[in-house]
Request: fold
Amino acid sequence: MRILVAGGAGYIGSHTCLVLLEAGHDVVVADNLCNSKTESLRRVEALTGKQIVFYEADVTDETAVEKIFSEQEIDGVIHFAGLKAVGESVEQPIRYYHNNVVSTLTLCKVMQRHGVNKFVFSSSATVYGENEIPFVETMSLLPTTNPYGETKVMSERILQDVANVNPDWSVALLRYFNPIGAHESGRIGEDPQGIPNNLMPYVTQVASGKREYLRVWGDDYPTVDGTGVRDYIHVMDLAEGHVRAIEKLNEEKGVLIYNLGTGHGVSVLELVHAFEKANGLTIPYQVFERRAGDIAEFYADASKAEKELGWKAERTIEDMCRDAWNWQKQNPQGYEE
Ligand code: NAD
Ligand code: UD1
Reply:
Protein backbone atom coordinates (compact mmCIF):
# COMPACT_ATOMS: atom_id res chain seq x y z
CA MET A 1 0.00 0.00 0.00
CA ARG A 2 1.01 3.64 -0.44
CA ILE A 3 0.34 5.34 2.87
CA LEU A 4 0.12 9.04 3.66
CA VAL A 5 1.59 9.46 7.13
CA ALA A 6 0.46 12.82 8.52
CA GLY A 7 2.84 13.88 11.29
CA GLY A 8 5.30 11.22 10.12
CA ALA A 9 8.43 13.16 11.16
CA GLY A 10 7.42 13.01 14.83
CA TYR A 11 8.19 10.45 17.52
CA ILE A 12 5.63 7.71 16.86
CA GLY A 13 5.27 8.65 13.18
CA SER A 14 8.97 8.18 12.36
CA HIS A 15 9.04 4.72 13.98
CA THR A 16 5.87 3.78 12.12
CA CYS A 17 7.35 4.97 8.80
CA LEU A 18 10.30 2.67 9.42
CA VAL A 19 8.11 -0.35 10.11
CA LEU A 20 5.84 0.44 7.12
CA LEU A 21 8.86 0.61 4.80
CA GLU A 22 10.26 -2.63 6.22
CA ALA A 23 6.89 -4.31 5.65
CA GLY A 24 7.10 -3.32 1.96
CA HIS A 25 4.73 -0.34 1.94
CA ASP A 26 5.44 3.03 0.31
CA VAL A 27 5.41 6.09 2.52
CA VAL A 28 4.45 9.70 1.82
CA VAL A 29 4.89 12.03 4.81
CA ALA A 30 3.09 15.33 5.39
CA ASP A 31 4.43 17.27 8.35
CA ASN A 32 4.62 20.98 9.15
CA LEU A 33 7.64 20.35 11.42
CA CYS A 34 6.05 22.24 14.33
CA ASN A 35 7.40 19.58 16.71
CA SER A 36 9.95 17.65 14.65
CA LYS A 37 12.82 17.80 12.19
CA THR A 38 13.29 16.12 8.81
CA GLU A 39 16.46 14.53 10.20
CA SER A 40 14.22 11.79 11.69
CA LEU A 41 13.06 10.88 8.18
CA ARG A 42 16.59 10.99 6.76
CA ARG A 43 17.59 8.49 9.43
CA VAL A 44 14.62 6.24 8.67
CA GLU A 45 15.72 6.26 5.03
CA ALA A 46 19.28 5.37 6.06
CA LEU A 47 18.09 2.55 8.35
CA THR A 48 15.77 1.02 5.75
CA GLY A 49 17.63 1.89 2.53
CA LYS A 50 14.28 3.17 1.18
CA GLN A 51 12.98 6.57 0.15
CA ILE A 52 10.22 8.63 1.74
CA VAL A 53 8.30 11.24 -0.25
CA PHE A 54 8.14 14.31 1.99
CA TYR A 55 5.79 17.30 1.92
CA GLU A 56 6.32 20.15 4.35
CA ALA A 57 2.62 20.77 4.77
CA ASP A 58 0.09 21.66 7.41
CA VAL A 59 -2.72 19.13 7.25
CA THR A 60 -5.27 21.70 8.43
CA ASP A 61 -4.58 23.47 5.10
CA GLU A 62 -6.98 21.97 2.57
CA THR A 63 -5.11 23.34 -0.44
CA ALA A 64 -1.85 21.77 0.74
CA VAL A 65 -3.53 18.41 1.41
CA GLU A 66 -5.34 18.53 -1.94
CA LYS A 67 -1.98 19.02 -3.68
CA ILE A 68 -0.59 15.86 -2.06
CA PHE A 69 -3.60 13.75 -3.05
CA SER A 70 -3.54 15.04 -6.60
CA GLU A 71 0.17 14.27 -6.98
CA GLN A 72 0.30 10.91 -5.15
CA GLU A 73 -1.73 7.71 -5.45
CA ILE A 74 -2.68 7.26 -1.79
CA ASP A 75 -4.31 4.02 -0.53
CA GLY A 76 -4.71 4.97 3.12
CA VAL A 77 -3.90 7.59 5.74
CA ILE A 78 -2.36 7.37 9.21
CA HIS A 79 -2.98 10.59 11.12
CA PHE A 80 -0.37 11.43 13.78
CA ALA A 81 -0.40 15.19 13.14
CA GLY A 82 -1.57 16.41 16.53
CA LEU A 83 -0.39 18.73 19.25
CA LYS A 84 -0.01 16.67 22.41
CA ALA A 85 0.98 18.67 25.49
CA VAL A 86 -1.88 18.44 27.98
CA GLY A 87 -0.91 21.50 30.07
CA GLU A 88 -0.37 23.62 26.96
CA SER A 89 -3.80 22.59 25.67
CA VAL A 90 -5.40 24.09 28.79
CA GLU A 91 -3.57 27.38 28.14
CA GLN A 92 -4.10 27.42 24.36
CA PRO A 93 -7.48 25.74 23.75
CA ILE A 94 -8.17 27.45 20.41
CA ARG A 95 -4.85 26.35 18.95
CA TYR A 96 -5.36 22.77 20.14
CA TYR A 97 -8.97 22.42 18.98
CA HIS A 98 -8.09 23.98 15.65
CA ASN A 99 -5.02 21.90 14.94
CA ASN A 100 -6.26 18.55 16.20
CA VAL A 101 -9.86 18.67 15.00
CA VAL A 102 -9.48 20.60 11.73
CA SER A 103 -6.63 18.28 10.69
CA THR A 104 -8.97 15.28 11.01
CA LEU A 105 -11.76 17.05 9.12
CA THR A 106 -9.45 18.25 6.35
CA LEU A 107 -7.97 14.81 5.78
CA CYS A 108 -11.48 13.28 5.66
CA LYS A 109 -12.70 15.90 3.19
CA VAL A 110 -9.83 15.46 0.76
CA MET A 111 -9.84 11.67 1.12
CA GLN A 112 -13.53 11.58 0.25
CA ARG A 113 -12.90 13.68 -2.85
CA HIS A 114 -10.20 11.26 -3.99
CA GLY A 115 -12.00 8.03 -3.07
CA VAL A 116 -9.47 7.13 -0.36
CA ASN A 117 -11.30 5.37 2.47
CA LYS A 118 -8.82 3.87 4.94
CA PHE A 119 -8.03 5.99 7.99
CA VAL A 120 -5.92 5.10 11.03
CA PHE A 121 -6.21 7.61 13.86
CA SER A 122 -3.84 8.27 16.79
CA SER A 123 -6.17 8.34 19.74
CA SER A 124 -5.21 8.04 23.37
CA ALA A 125 -6.11 6.20 26.56
CA THR A 126 -7.01 9.66 27.83
CA VAL A 127 -10.45 9.29 26.14
CA TYR A 128 -11.47 6.83 28.88
CA GLY A 129 -11.23 9.52 31.55
CA GLU A 130 -11.31 8.17 35.10
CA ASN A 131 -12.93 4.84 34.22
CA GLU A 132 -12.50 1.52 35.98
CA ILE A 133 -9.28 -0.35 35.18
CA PRO A 134 -8.38 -2.06 32.99
CA PHE A 135 -9.74 0.17 30.22
CA VAL A 136 -11.77 -1.81 27.69
CA GLU A 137 -12.82 -0.59 24.22
CA THR A 138 -16.51 -1.13 25.00
CA MET A 139 -16.52 1.34 27.93
CA SER A 140 -18.46 4.59 27.71
CA LEU A 141 -16.01 7.46 27.53
CA LEU A 142 -15.82 9.84 30.50
CA PRO A 143 -14.81 13.53 30.41
CA THR A 144 -11.07 14.03 29.96
CA THR A 145 -10.77 17.38 31.83
CA ASN A 146 -8.51 19.03 29.21
CA PRO A 147 -8.79 20.30 25.62
CA TYR A 148 -6.17 17.83 24.35
CA GLY A 149 -8.25 14.88 25.50
CA GLU A 150 -11.42 16.43 24.10
CA THR A 151 -9.80 16.81 20.66
CA LYS A 152 -9.19 13.05 20.67
CA VAL A 153 -12.81 12.33 21.65
CA MET A 154 -14.07 14.73 18.95
CA SER A 155 -11.86 13.27 16.24
CA GLU A 156 -13.03 9.77 17.15
CA ARG A 157 -16.68 10.91 16.86
CA ILE A 158 -16.08 12.66 13.53
CA LEU A 159 -14.49 9.54 12.08
CA GLN A 160 -17.30 7.32 13.38
CA ASP A 161 -19.92 9.61 11.81
CA VAL A 162 -18.07 9.72 8.50
CA ALA A 163 -17.76 5.93 8.43
CA ASN A 164 -21.45 5.52 9.32
CA VAL A 165 -22.61 7.29 6.16
CA ASN A 166 -19.83 5.94 3.93
CA PRO A 167 -20.11 2.15 4.09
CA ASP A 168 -16.98 1.76 1.97
CA TRP A 169 -14.87 3.51 4.65
CA SER A 170 -12.76 1.68 7.19
CA VAL A 171 -11.41 3.47 10.23
CA ALA A 172 -9.11 2.28 13.01
CA LEU A 173 -9.17 4.29 16.24
CA LEU A 174 -5.98 3.32 18.06
CA ARG A 175 -5.96 4.25 21.71
CA TYR A 176 -2.33 4.39 22.81
CA PHE A 177 -1.28 3.90 26.36
CA ASN A 178 2.16 5.35 27.28
CA PRO A 179 4.66 5.01 24.43
CA ILE A 180 8.34 5.12 25.45
CA GLY A 181 11.65 3.79 24.16
CA ALA A 182 13.23 4.10 20.75
CA HIS A 183 14.35 2.06 17.76
CA GLU A 184 16.96 -0.52 18.79
CA SER A 185 19.63 1.26 16.70
CA GLY A 186 19.41 4.44 18.79
CA ARG A 187 19.22 6.44 15.53
CA ILE A 188 15.60 7.56 15.95
CA GLY A 189 13.74 8.34 19.16
CA GLU A 190 11.75 10.91 21.09
CA ASP A 191 13.09 14.47 20.81
CA PRO A 192 11.06 16.66 23.20
CA GLN A 193 11.45 20.43 22.94
CA GLY A 194 12.24 22.19 26.23
CA ILE A 195 11.57 20.59 29.61
CA PRO A 196 9.91 17.19 29.11
CA ASN A 197 6.46 16.72 30.66
CA ASN A 198 6.44 12.96 30.29
CA LEU A 199 8.23 10.60 32.62
CA MET A 200 10.68 8.67 30.41
CA PRO A 201 12.26 11.62 28.57
CA TYR A 202 12.69 13.32 31.94
CA VAL A 203 14.37 10.22 33.37
CA THR A 204 16.80 9.96 30.43
CA GLN A 205 17.71 13.65 30.82
CA VAL A 206 18.44 13.07 34.52
CA ALA A 207 20.56 10.08 33.52
CA SER A 208 22.55 12.23 31.09
CA GLY A 209 23.13 14.94 33.69
CA LYS A 210 21.00 17.49 31.81
CA ARG A 211 18.60 17.62 34.80
CA GLU A 212 19.58 17.20 38.42
CA TYR A 213 16.86 14.88 39.70
CA LEU A 214 13.45 13.50 38.85
CA ARG A 215 10.40 15.01 40.49
CA VAL A 216 8.02 12.21 41.37
CA TRP A 217 4.52 13.67 41.28
CA GLY A 218 2.99 12.15 44.40
CA ASP A 219 3.61 8.99 46.42
CA ASP A 220 0.27 8.84 48.23
CA TYR A 221 -1.86 7.23 45.52
CA PRO A 222 -3.67 3.98 46.30
CA THR A 223 -1.17 2.01 44.19
CA VAL A 224 1.50 -0.62 44.77
CA ASP A 225 4.04 1.92 46.12
CA GLY A 226 1.98 5.11 46.19
CA THR A 227 3.26 6.44 42.85
CA GLY A 228 1.23 6.68 39.62
CA VAL A 229 0.79 3.52 37.56
CA ARG A 230 0.75 3.47 33.74
CA ASP A 231 0.86 0.98 30.89
CA TYR A 232 4.18 1.76 29.17
CA ILE A 233 4.51 0.38 25.66
CA HIS A 234 7.64 0.21 23.48
CA VAL A 235 7.28 2.60 20.55
CA MET A 236 8.38 -0.17 18.14
CA ASP A 237 5.55 -2.42 19.35
CA LEU A 238 3.20 0.52 18.90
CA ALA A 239 4.53 1.16 15.38
CA GLU A 240 3.98 -2.50 14.48
CA GLY A 241 0.40 -2.19 15.75
CA HIS A 242 -0.22 0.53 13.13
CA VAL A 243 0.97 -1.65 10.30
CA ARG A 244 -1.34 -4.45 11.43
CA ALA A 245 -4.20 -1.98 11.71
CA ILE A 246 -3.81 -0.47 8.24
CA GLU A 247 -3.52 -3.94 6.73
CA LYS A 248 -6.68 -4.99 8.62
CA LEU A 249 -8.54 -2.06 7.03
CA ASN A 250 -7.94 -3.73 3.66
CA GLU A 251 -10.07 -6.66 4.83
CA GLU A 252 -12.74 -5.02 6.94
CA LYS A 253 -15.09 -2.02 6.66
CA GLY A 254 -16.51 0.12 9.44
CA VAL A 255 -14.96 1.41 12.63
CA LEU A 256 -12.46 -0.71 14.55
CA ILE A 257 -11.31 0.45 17.99
CA TYR A 258 -8.19 -0.97 19.61
CA ASN A 259 -6.26 -0.33 22.77
CA LEU A 260 -2.54 -0.45 22.08
CA GLY A 261 -0.94 -1.22 25.41
CA THR A 262 0.71 -4.16 27.14
CA GLY A 263 -2.05 -4.81 29.67
CA HIS A 264 0.38 -4.32 32.58
CA GLY A 265 0.70 -1.40 34.95
CA VAL A 266 4.10 -0.12 36.11
CA SER A 267 4.56 2.52 38.84
CA VAL A 268 6.84 5.55 38.57
CA LEU A 269 9.30 4.04 41.03
CA GLU A 270 9.17 0.63 39.34
CA LEU A 271 10.06 2.33 36.07
CA VAL A 272 12.91 4.27 37.71
CA HIS A 273 14.31 1.09 39.24
CA ALA A 274 13.97 -0.86 35.99
CA PHE A 275 15.85 1.96 34.24
CA GLU A 276 18.62 1.89 36.85
CA LYS A 277 18.95 -1.89 36.58
CA ALA A 278 18.83 -2.06 32.78
CA ASN A 279 21.46 0.65 32.36
CA GLY A 280 23.61 0.37 35.49
CA LEU A 281 22.84 3.95 36.55
CA THR A 282 21.36 5.77 39.51
CA ILE A 283 18.44 8.16 39.03
CA PRO A 284 18.17 10.64 41.89
CA TYR A 285 14.59 11.64 42.63
CA GLN A 286 12.49 13.66 45.07
CA VAL A 287 8.82 13.28 45.84
CA PHE A 288 6.56 16.30 45.22
CA GLU A 289 2.82 17.00 45.41
CA ARG A 290 0.53 15.22 42.95
CA ARG A 291 0.37 16.78 39.47
CA ALA A 292 -3.02 18.37 38.73
CA GLY A 293 -5.18 16.24 36.45
CA ASP A 294 -3.24 12.99 37.01
CA ILE A 295 -5.05 9.69 37.49
CA ALA A 296 -3.68 7.21 40.06
CA GLU A 297 -3.57 4.13 37.87
CA PHE A 298 -4.57 2.93 34.43
CA TYR A 299 -3.65 0.18 32.02
CA ALA A 300 -5.16 -1.50 29.02
CA ASP A 301 -7.20 -4.56 28.46
CA ALA A 302 -5.09 -5.44 25.43
CA SER A 303 -6.93 -8.62 24.44
CA LYS A 304 -9.00 -7.23 21.54
CA ALA A 305 -5.99 -6.20 19.44
CA GLU A 306 -4.40 -9.58 20.07
CA LYS A 307 -7.54 -11.45 19.04
CA GLU A 308 -8.46 -9.38 15.99
CA LEU A 309 -5.15 -7.97 14.75
CA GLY A 310 -2.93 -10.81 15.88
CA TRP A 311 -0.84 -8.07 17.51
CA LYS A 312 0.62 -8.13 21.00
CA ALA A 313 3.27 -5.93 22.60
CA GLU A 314 6.38 -8.12 22.86
CA ARG A 315 9.06 -5.86 24.31
CA THR A 316 9.69 -5.68 28.06
CA ILE A 317 10.07 -2.69 30.36
CA GLU A 318 13.83 -3.43 30.40
CA ASP A 319 13.91 -3.22 26.57
CA MET A 320 12.09 0.14 26.78
CA CYS A 321 14.56 1.48 29.37
CA ARG A 322 17.63 0.25 27.49
CA ASP A 323 16.48 1.62 24.14
CA ALA A 324 15.38 4.99 25.57
CA TRP A 325 18.81 5.42 27.16
CA ASN A 326 20.65 4.19 24.06
CA TRP A 327 18.89 6.91 22.01
CA GLN A 328 19.55 9.64 24.60
CA LYS A 329 23.20 8.65 24.97
CA GLN A 330 23.85 8.70 21.25
CA ASN A 331 21.86 11.91 20.70
CA PRO A 332 22.28 14.16 23.74
CA GLN A 333 20.88 17.10 21.74
CA GLY A 334 18.17 15.05 20.02
CA TYR A 335 18.26 15.53 16.24
CA GLU A 336 20.32 18.71 16.56
CA GLU A 337 23.84 17.80 15.55
P1 NAD B 1 5.05 14.31 17.93
O1 NAD B 1 4.81 15.72 18.31
O2 NAD B 1 6.43 13.79 18.04
O3 NAD B 1 4.53 14.05 16.44
C1 NAD B 1 3.47 14.77 15.86
C2 NAD B 1 3.95 15.26 14.51
O4 NAD B 1 2.87 15.94 13.85
C3 NAD B 1 5.10 16.24 14.60
O5 NAD B 1 6.09 15.88 13.66
C4 NAD B 1 4.48 17.59 14.25
O6 NAD B 1 5.40 18.44 13.60
C5 NAD B 1 3.36 17.16 13.32
N1 NAD B 1 2.19 18.04 13.25
C6 NAD B 1 1.43 18.52 14.28
N2 NAD B 1 0.42 19.26 13.79
C7 NAD B 1 0.52 19.23 12.44
C8 NAD B 1 -0.24 19.77 11.37
N3 NAD B 1 -1.31 20.53 11.60
N4 NAD B 1 0.14 19.50 10.10
C9 NAD B 1 1.23 18.73 9.85
N5 NAD B 1 1.98 18.21 10.81
C10 NAD B 1 1.64 18.44 12.10
O7 NAD B 1 4.05 13.42 18.79
P2 NAD B 1 3.93 11.84 18.92
O8 NAD B 1 4.30 11.50 20.31
O9 NAD B 1 4.62 11.17 17.82
O10 NAD B 1 2.37 11.66 18.80
C11 NAD B 1 1.74 11.38 17.58
C12 NAD B 1 0.23 11.33 17.78
O11 NAD B 1 -0.08 10.36 18.76
C13 NAD B 1 -0.37 12.65 18.27
O12 NAD B 1 -1.62 12.83 17.64
C14 NAD B 1 -0.57 12.41 19.75
O13 NAD B 1 -1.63 13.16 20.28
C15 NAD B 1 -0.89 10.92 19.77
N6 NAD B 1 -0.59 10.31 21.06
C16 NAD B 1 0.68 10.40 21.55
C17 NAD B 1 0.98 9.83 22.78
C18 NAD B 1 2.36 9.94 23.37
O14 NAD B 1 2.52 9.69 24.55
N7 NAD B 1 3.39 10.29 22.61
C19 NAD B 1 -0.03 9.17 23.49
C20 NAD B 1 -1.31 9.08 22.96
C21 NAD B 1 -1.57 9.66 21.72
C1 UD1 C 1 0.30 12.27 29.92
C2 UD1 C 1 -0.97 13.04 29.65
C3 UD1 C 1 -1.89 12.19 28.79
C4 UD1 C 1 -1.18 11.78 27.52
C5 UD1 C 1 0.12 11.05 27.91
C6 UD1 C 1 0.93 10.64 26.74
C7 UD1 C 1 -1.19 14.51 31.59
C8 UD1 C 1 -2.01 14.84 32.80
N1 UD1 C 1 -1.58 13.43 30.90
O1 UD1 C 1 -0.10 11.09 30.55
O2 UD1 C 1 -3.06 12.89 28.47
O3 UD1 C 1 -1.99 10.94 26.74
O4 UD1 C 1 0.92 11.92 28.73
O5 UD1 C 1 1.44 11.76 26.07
O6 UD1 C 1 -0.26 15.23 31.25
N2 UD1 C 1 5.59 11.64 36.38
C9 UD1 C 1 6.44 12.01 37.40
N3 UD1 C 1 7.41 12.95 37.12
C10 UD1 C 1 7.58 13.51 35.90
C11 UD1 C 1 6.71 13.11 34.86
C12 UD1 C 1 5.71 12.17 35.14
O7 UD1 C 1 6.33 11.54 38.51
O8 UD1 C 1 8.47 14.35 35.71
C13 UD1 C 1 4.57 10.61 36.65
C14 UD1 C 1 3.15 11.08 36.43
O9 UD1 C 1 2.62 11.65 37.59
C15 UD1 C 1 2.46 9.76 36.03
C16 UD1 C 1 3.57 8.98 35.29
O10 UD1 C 1 4.79 9.56 35.73
O11 UD1 C 1 2.08 9.04 37.16
C17 UD1 C 1 3.48 9.08 33.78
O12 UD1 C 1 3.41 10.45 33.41
P1 UD1 C 1 3.46 10.94 31.89
O13 UD1 C 1 4.62 10.33 31.21
O14 UD1 C 1 3.36 12.42 31.89
O15 UD1 C 1 2.17 10.29 31.24
P2 UD1 C 1 0.63 10.39 31.69
O16 UD1 C 1 0.45 11.22 32.89
O17 UD1 C 1 0.08 9.03 31.71
About this structure: The chain has two domains: 2-181+232-261, 199-229+264-304+319-336.
